Every structure is written in C-alpha cells, then in structure tokens.
Amino acid sequence: MATAKRSEEGLPCPSFSRRCRLLVREQKARFYILRRCIMMLVCWSDRGDL
Fold first, then answer.
1. Contacts of 14 (CB under 8 A, 6+ apart)
2. What are the tens digits of pLDDT across the range 6-48?
3. What is the chain's Cα-based Rg?
4. How many Cα atoms occupy the beta-carbon half-sphere of 43 within 13 Å?
5. Which whole-number Å values give the CA distances from 33 to 11, 22, 30, 48, in the listed order?
6. Least packed by Cβ within 10 Å: which of 4, 31, 32, 43?
7. Is 14:22 a contact under the CB 8 Å cutoff?
8. Containing H/E element for 16?
9. Where does the UniProt annotation place the signal sequence (predicted)?
10. Global pTM value
11. What is the rounded CA–CA span in Å between residue 43 and residue 27?
12. pLDDT on residue 45
C-alpha cells in the first residue's frame, strides 16, 4: 500500500509535459511490438503455404 500512496505523501508529481512524453514513448513501444508481432505472423503464414 505504501507504493500506491507515493504521490499523495508529498513527493512531487511529474510535470504534465513529462507525463505526456512518457505516455507517448510507452505507446510507441507498444505499437512497435505489435507491428513486429503482426509481421512475424504474416511471414510465418506465408512460409507455411510452401
């Protein structure tokens, strides 16, 4: 429970722009992983047809 209340205990919250940058970076990483998985599945299914 102590970790859930870290921001409430007086520790400074990250600025809005920093939170936005972190969120954008996380979403870009997720899309990159998703794109790689889709490409692997497409290539794997193409090979399976041979």
1. 22
2. 444 554 566 999 999 999 999 999 999 999 999 999 888 766 6
3. 20
4. 6
5. 33, 17, 5, 22
6. 4
7. yes
8. helix 16-48
9. none
10. 0.55
11. 24
12. 73
List the structure tokens of 19: 């939170």
Angle CA 5–21–38, to nearest 5: 105
Asked whether the beta carbons of 34 and 27 are under 8 A apart, the reply is no
Query: What tokens appear for 48 in the block?
Result: 């399976």
Residue 49 pLDDT grade (very low, low, confident, very high; cuts 50, 70, 90): low
Q: What is the DSSP string of 18-50?
A: HHHHHHHHHHHHHHHHHHHHHHHHHHHHHHHT-
- The residue count for the chain: 50
